[in-house]
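Table S2 (text version). Query chain:
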Amino acid sequence: MHDTLIIPQGFNGPRLSGNGGYVSGVLAERYTRVFGGDGAVEITLRAPIPIETKLSVVREGEALMLRDRDTLICEARAGKVDHLDPPHPPSDWAEVMRRDATGGCGEDSEFHTCLVCGRSRVVGDGLRVFGSHGPETGRSLSCYLPHANHADADGRIRPEFLWGTLDCPGAWAAQDPEDPRPALTGRMTAKVLDPPKVGERCAVVGWRIGAEGRKLYSGTALYTESGRLCAIGHCIWIVLKD
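Corresponding structure-token output:
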């Protein structure tokens, strides 16, 4: 198999490179199309993801590789999420909506244009997953309102965008809120279970799994307001050096 992929302008995390969660979801969909499986896919990000650049998608053994000429950008392999034990869905939706009003990355952040959490992205453009640390130590809580621009013909949110919703909230849970250094997605494993419908109010719950030096480990779960689990995943984050 040899295919190509272009990440369009606007599908960024950091301003000049693709959003790790979204791109992981795009590559995961292609992996599942080629290899099948139960839908759980592990994506390892090896280099910043170029935008508006023709990238190669190549099968190598039991993996898919995303390359920019000789540079390996990402690799996709079979993953597992069955071991995850997510927190219960939130019961206090007033608190969820407070995160919607105050969370995410504002103009003072280098991630203010992030596809997932950037507050500079307007409704229908970015995913606007707005949240922050808490309410407990090692947790995060975020609000997400699915928009029609990100849905399929049946009105359900497409998997690559759901991978995006699981991304940034993991960093908020895993990282010390007093540490100003950014953390970038190093590896993401996720599975979409039951995509939410347009307008179906959702929350993303993140939890810290552990840390090892500059590596942080987190889990994230996307729930509807009724408590239905839509998607689940876990991430390894790399905290950038000073």
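Notes on Table S2: The CA atoms of residues 116 and 165 lie 6 Å apart. The chain has two domains: 2-78, 93-239.
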